Amino acid sequence: MNERFVVGIVRGSHGVAGDCKVESTSGEYGHFARMTEVTLRDGRTGSETLRAVERVTVNGHSLLMKFAGIDTPEAVKRLNGHEIIVPRDLACPLDENSWYVEDLKQCTLVYPKGGWGRDGLEAGASPADFVAVGTVTDVLEGGTGNLLQIKLAEDCTLLAEQVRFAANGKARTVLVPFRNEFVGEVDLERRQIQLMHLWILE
Question: What is the pLDDT of residues 104-116, one digit of tens each?
Answer without folding.
Answer: 998 999 999 888 8
